[in-house]
Amino acid sequence: MSHLHTGSCLCGAVKFELEGEFKKFFLCHCSRCRKTSGSAHCASLFAPGAALRWLSGEDKIRFYRHEETHFARTFCSLCGSNVPTDAKARGLVAVPAGCLDTDVDIKPQAHIFMDSKGNWDESLVDVPAFDGMPS
Ligand SMILES: [Zn+2]
Ligand SMILES: [Zn+2]
Fold it and tell me: Assuming Cys at both sites, which of 24, 40, 61, 77 could form a disulfide with 46, CB separation 3.0 to 4.6 Å?
C-alpha cells in the first residue's frame, strides 16, 4: 500500500511529495546527527522504494556527504532546513520527520547510537514542559 506524503522547508522555497511507505523511524543520537540538527538527535524516517518528487525549489537544494561515509544531508540553501535525501544507491528515501507537513503513520521505533549522545541528553521526559515560552 502506497501513501502520499508532503513536506517543505521552513522558508517554503522547497516543497516535495513522497509516494511510498515509511518502514523505519529512528531517533539517532550520533555526533553527526547532533551537529547537523543542533539538537539531541535526528528523527529519520526511511521509505524503501519510495518515489520522491520536488514540487518547487529544486534549484535551492544543496547536498552534503560526509567524507568516506554514507552520512548525507540534503538541505535548503536559503533557510538551512533538512529535507529528504534520495539515496538511490541504497534504494530508499531518508526523510527528516520534522520537514513533513502530513502526519506520520508510524511511531519512532528506537533511539540509536546512544553511546555518542550529548552529556545533557539524559531523562529529557522528566524536564518541565510548557505549551509556549515560560514567563
Ligand atoms: Zn528553505
Ligand atoms: Zn546519526
Answer: 24
